[in-house]
Automatic annotation (TrEMBL):
Domain Protein kinase: 95-666
Keywords from the UniProt entry: ATP-binding, Kinase, Membrane, Nucleotide-binding, Serine/threonine-protein kinase, Transferase, Transmembrane, Transmembrane helix
Annotated gene: LOC102604233
InterPro entries per UniProt: At4g25390-like, Kinase-like_dom_sf, Prot_kinase_dom, Protein_kinase_ATP_BS, Ser/Thr_kinase_AS
SMART domains: S_TKc (SM00220)
Membrane-spanning segments: 40-61
Region Disordered, annotated ranges: 666-685
Presence of keyword Oxidoreductase: no
Protein name: non-specific serine/threonine protein kinase
Organism whose genome encodes this protein: Solanum tuberosum (Potato)
Binding site for ATP: K123
SUPFAM superfamilies: Protein kinase-like (PK-like)
EC annotation from Swiss-Prot or TrEMBL: 2.7.11.1
Gene3D superfamilies: Phosphorylase Kinase, domain 1, Transferase(Phosphotransferase) domain 1
Amino acid sequence: MPPENPFSPPLTPLPVFPTTYLIPPPPPPSSNHHHSHSPLIPPFIAAAFALTFFIVAAIIYRKVSRNRTVPADLKSPPPPHKFTYSVLRRATGSFTAANRLGQGGFGSVYKGVLPSGQEVAVKLMDASGSLQGEREFHNELTLASRIDTTSCHYVVPILGFSSDEHSYKHHCSSRRRRRLVLVYEYMRNGSLQDALLDRKCPELMQWRKRFDIISSIAKGVEYLHYSCDPPIVHGDIKPSNILLDYHFDAKIADFGLAQSLIKDDQVVESFIEDDEKVEKGAKGEVFENVEENGSILEGNESVVTDEVVINVDQLPESCCVRVLDGEVGGVSPEVGVPSEGIEKTSVSEGFFDGVSVDSGVLKGIGRGTSQSGRDWWWKQDNVNGGSDSGRIKDYVMEWIGSEIRKERPKKDWIATTSAAEDIAKGGQQKQRKKLEWWASLDEERTKREKKNRKPREWWKEEFCEELAKKKKKRDLKSGEMWWQRDEEVAPERKRRKSKGSRSSIDWWLDSFSGEFRIGRRSSQDFASGDIPKSGGVSSTPSMRGTVCYIAPEYGGGGQLSEKCDVYSFGVLLLVLVSGRRPLQVTASPMSEFERANLVSWARQLAHSGKLLDLVDPNIQLLDREQALLCITIALLCLQRSPNKRPTMKEIVGMLCGDSEPPHLPFEFSPSPPSNFPFKSRKKAR
Ligand SMILES: Nc1ncnc2c1ncn2[C@@H]1O[C@H](COP(=O)(O)OP(=O)(O)OP(=O)(O)O)[C@@H](O)[C@H]1O
């Protein structure tokens, strides 16, 4: 180690700089620096970029927000396919009788198989010369194709249509006419009417299935009312318009009488527009012209006559009563030919006198006819001493009387049937003598009875007395809205009941309302003892629908509203729970009369607190609580005042247990009013 030099300066440690200090910091950027070294982006390019960005963002936003506001079920479904007539003819084996599924008021429905192998139901409209048939075709095509059956599984999908023209010979001249055909998805188990009331399918004897069907129909109608834009009112809810698929799941069919709820002045226009849209079909071609629609909408019709047809089916327990309206001005009448066993009697000429019809399928329904409409309702509801009033009831009562008579002495029966049949067969002398002999007996008997009227016509006299009372009461109340009387019905009934003055037949007649089918033609169900249905709709839009199911205000010429469907749903509910037709008269025993009118019977049972008596005895595994719920809902739906009826949404809520179970309307509650023993079915949330 070298010696330390005392003269050398002392060593001072070098200042230690952090390494960063070793690299000089970069000079502060000068403004000139940037300009001189980076490439220049012209401001107009930046602006263009920004603009493009905003436009793209706006487009995306609009698309997203539109998708968000339109629910999936409001997206319009693809238009129905247009078939050629020959394809459908081949599919159905030339519309052979073997393939016939059923008969509607305006044509037959055939089973068919398309070249693709798909099974279809083909409705061949018998619309030749019939405005009503053409209307139904266009109406059904227009409205049914608006329903997106991919999101609503409770409506029978319409697959397509055909409206090819063909020429035909008419009195040596050749004319052209359209064949109107509608094509639907095939529903293997046919109509609820047939399956429940005629075939009595074992599948429908399970309560669970019936309740499922009830829920499906309710949801289907709810869909029409709330998820279609504009809302659709079906206008003809009844068992023959409910079809069952392979699993007996229910779907609503037949939109021939349906209506879109648009303001009156828009209705016809939009009908035409929509029709054109549909007619454009998938390829955008125009197949039909507006001219035809024009002609459809032009007819200014008035009803001239009407008839009551009574059908006594071979089955003793079923009968049906039908009101047929008559000839339409300018259109040849197509009155259904009564089948065997049908008595046809013309009554009440001019019954609908003064009911004139606004032109158009949808427009102005019942406008200006509400008074006559109201009368129409009361004519059914209260037989009074008025000139026309009660003719139908009178007639029905006469018929019931004749049925009772038939039940009595055997000789009557022989005289009226066997002998007559024999004569029709061979006309043997012996039989003719026998008939004459019985006829003379009958004459004598009639004379005797005239002397001693009391026992035979007890019902008629009682009935007339009651009518006179009713008429008096109504006269006093004139000027009121008819449904305002609702509230007074119950106390009045109770008072009378307490006096014990009401016979069993009184109440039956009391609410004998809406149990007739209005129409011109009979359908297959007619022959099977059902109330004939819609095909035979009246030529007047104010008198459309099936009367057993029709809401009083609509049947009476009022405006069709959602509440009309609610009323019809109420009747359908009772039919489903009881397994009975709305009007089912058996000749005996007398006690059956109490149940003849289903709606009245249900009301009567409600008064006596025995609602469950209404339930079909064939039902297995009955859920009593659900059955009570259904009957209660039905009675709510059947209230005369449309405002009091629940909405379809509320009904679905009650059926699904999403809302509190309903209470019986006051007018139907037993005395003292008591709530039915529902547990709260409201789902715990
Ligand atoms: N899609 C279908 N699948 C299976 N059967 C059907 C189908 N559509 C109709 N039917 C059968 O054809 C019958 C007649 O149907 P259609 O709709 O023509 O008349 P309706 O509804 O019974 O009577 P209306 O025309 O008087 O309302 C039905 O009762 C049903 O049995």
